[in-house]
Specification:
The complex is a heterodimer of chains A (about 260) and B (about 350). Chain A has about 260 residues and is α/β, with parallel strands linked by helices. Chain A has 9 helices and 10 strands. In chain A, a hairpin with a 2-residue loop joins strand 4 and strand 5. The chains are: A alpha/beta (about 260), B mainly alpha (about 350). At the A-B interface, helix 2, helix 3, helix 6 and helix 7 of A face helix 1, helix 9 and helix 10 of B.
């Protein structure tokens, strides 16, 4: 099977610091790929390059067999790569439906929409409700309430629903459970599985080993700016993954391993 | 981000709504939430109360169509500048230069006709265009150069005001000359009466502009983006809002609106004077703050800003009619500013 999204020989330097050192990356269709690595290993640089937030010095990113050059997150998004940022990128004072449609609002049909650019609030609210319901995010009583009135997990839900809703093929999730309590994390993990069921590939960056081991199909271990190896969570213990991540253990040879 | 982290509520799969509010919601939380969603409520109540109090104290003298519409005439200029200021403050910026833009635009209108002999209609359009251009300069410095709006507009305030004095050579164009050669400049000061109520076209312009801006902010994508940029610019950018474009357009619209205030200014004082409207920027900020628009951006409404301007107008006229020392007006306005900002801080506290 061909990867849907892959990077080859990715290099990114910040001054003298080499954040990505000829790094490879593969994401296959319909899988959840966990990305783990120590702080400073270059995970977020890798993810930012994939989502268009930064540009590589050298190396290629291919998406759906085409070579891509994203100069900003919008381009990556319109190609079909959505990112759910750790800070969620929601506007707290705007309503749920305003947030869902921020940057891709729907206008009224007819004269009011064309001439006066009038938004179709009713339609956006209807579609927002539908998106949330599709993901099993409960029936919303008041889609017009502001995001700041929601709990952390609910906000995560809104951000994920927004990412899945607009025909995206790949969703990158950066530490989706870091700020959440036990119950809410549970809900978000279920949400990740639901999204995978819909055939969308997910890149999950997390420090939480139990969460990664639960939902990931494969785990990309990042170390010193490159991919150390890719492991199958069913064949390894969490402690082994941590040992590889920190350099205490050498990865065993397997077909999946890069380099 | 993680307010109810510990509570873990709302993710119960059997829950009926995403909005399951945390149970221990007190009355003050509820009031705060309501105020957050209806930002014009407090200024509107203050406006009605101050009208009622001055009405009781002064009786029919104050509660006459003449006196009430006099307030409108007196706040028209500051009201329009406050509309311009509201847009900028909603993006978490501030425009100290908008008063200078107003005066400079009016001077450009006047001089284009009286110095270069352009038809007054063309000069009027040039004046409005000049205001928009000055706003664009602010916008580019804030959005592209990423300089703080306070510093940018502090600088351009001085620059526009100085250019205004240099360009006009500190000359006033007399009202009689304008009435003779370019009556359109004084159009906004023209009055018409409806049952003792006196309106100027400047008042009508203020109301029309307020309605248009309120519509644009509420019902267009651009308006939603203005709020999103003020709320959290990084989040807005990541969500796909072109924040730079939004910011520049906000400052341009603010400059344009300031220039229309310049037109109203000529109508009100009759002449084109480079020394007029000195404190319009500060008065406009006062109106906006009293009107409940948060200086931290993203919160507030145009209706609130208009109420803020009217509150100042009601206090000024009411206290003058009572016959107090005019300093009492400033003292009370100062108090109102501090109360308004304190209230805003309380409303913004995230504790729902």
């Amino acid at each position: 099977m061909e990867p849907i999204l892959y990077a080859r020989n990715a290099v990114k330097r910040y001054g003298r610091v080499v954040a990505l050192d000829h790094c490879d990356f593969d994401l296959y269709p319909g899988e959840v790929l966990g990305v783990i690595g120590d702080n400073g290993a270059g995970k977020s640089t890798l993810i930012k390059a994939l989502s268009g937030a930064i540009q590589l010095d050298t190396g290629d990113i291919h998406f759906e067999t085409k070579k891509m050059h994203f100069s900003n997150p919008l381009e990556a998004r319109s190609a079909g790569i959505e990112t759910v940022y750790q800070n969620l990128a929601l506007s707290p004072a705007l309503s749920i439906s305003d947030n869902m449609f921020l940057g891709r609002e729907i206008r009224r049909k007819g004269l009011m929409g064309k001439l006066f650019c009038k938004l179709d609030h009713a339609e956006m609210e209807r579609q927002s409700k539908q998106m949330l319901a599709d993901l099993g995010l409960l029936t919303i009583q008041n889609i017009g309430q502001t995001v700041e009135t929601l709990s952390g997990g609910q906000r995560q839900g809104i951000a994920v629903a927004r990412a899945t809703a607009f025909g995206s093929r790949v969703i990158i999730m950066d530490e989706p459970t870091a700020a959440l309590g036990v119950k809410e994390s549970r809900r978000v993990l279920d949400l990740i599985k639901d999204v995978r069921e819909r055939g969308i590939s997910i890149v999950l960056i997390s420090h939480n080993m139990p969460h990664v081991f639960e939902v990931a199909d494969r785990i990309h271990i990042h170390r010193l700016g490159k991919r150390l190896c890719v492991i199958d969570p069913k064949e390894y213990e969490m402690s082994e993954a941590v040992a590889m991540m920190t350099g205490a253990m050498k990865p065993k040879d397997s077909g999946d391993v890069a380099e | 981000m993680s307010i109810s982290e510990e509570k873990g509520l709302g993710l119960d799969p059997t829950a009926e709504e995403v909005s399951a509010f945390i149970e221990e919601e007190t009355l003050s939380d509820r009031v705060r939430l309501w105020l957050r969603q209806t930002p014009a409520a407090v200024p509107l109540v203050v406006l009605l109360c101050s009208l009622a109090i001055f009405g009781l104290l002064l009786g029919g003298k104050f509660f006459s169509p003449f006196a009430l519409t006099l307030i409108l005439q007196q706040v028209a200029i500051v009201g329009i500048v406050a509309l311009a200021q509201s847009l900028v403050i909603l993006t978490a910026g501030i425009d100290l230069s908008v008063g200078a833009i107003m005066v400079f635009s009016s001077v450009i209108m006047g001089q284009f006709t009286f110095r270069y002999g352009l038809p007054p209609e063309i000069s009027l359009i040039c004046g409005l265009a000049a205001g928009t251009l000055m706003g664009a300069i602010n916008g580019v410095l804030v959005a592209i150069m990423r300089l703080p709006p306070f510093i940018v507009t502090l600088g351009t305030w001085q620059i526009f005001l100085a250019s205004n004095f240099i360009y006009s050579a500190n000359e006033t164009i007399r009202g009689a000359d304008i009435a003779e050669r370019a009556p359109i400049f004084q159009f906004m000061g023209n009055k018409f009466k409806i049952y003792g109520a006196v309106f100027t076209y400047g008042v009508i312009l203020m109301i029309v502009l307020a309605i248009i801006l309120a519509y644009v902010l509420r019902h267009t994508a651009w308006g939603r983006h203005v709020y999103a940029v003020g709320d959290d610019p990084d989040a807005a950018e990541l969500s796909g809002v072109r924040t730079k474009r939004v910011l520049i357009s906000v400052y341009m619209l603010s400059g344009f609106t300031g220039a229309t205030a310049g037109w109203v200014l000529v109508g009100r004082i009759g002449s084109v004077s480079p020394t007029s409207g000195q404190f319009a920027n500060i008065e406009a900020i006062t109106a906006v703050v009293i009107g409940g628009i948060s200086l931290f951006g993203g919160r507030g409404s145009i209706l609130g800003a208009l109420c803020g301007a009217l509150i100042v107008g009601v206090f000024s006229l009411g206290l003058r009619m009572i016959g107090t020392d005019p300093q009492w007006t400033y003292l009370l306005i100062g108090l109102l500013i501090i109360v308004a900002v304190a209230l805003d801080q309380w409303i913004r506290k995230v504790a729902v």
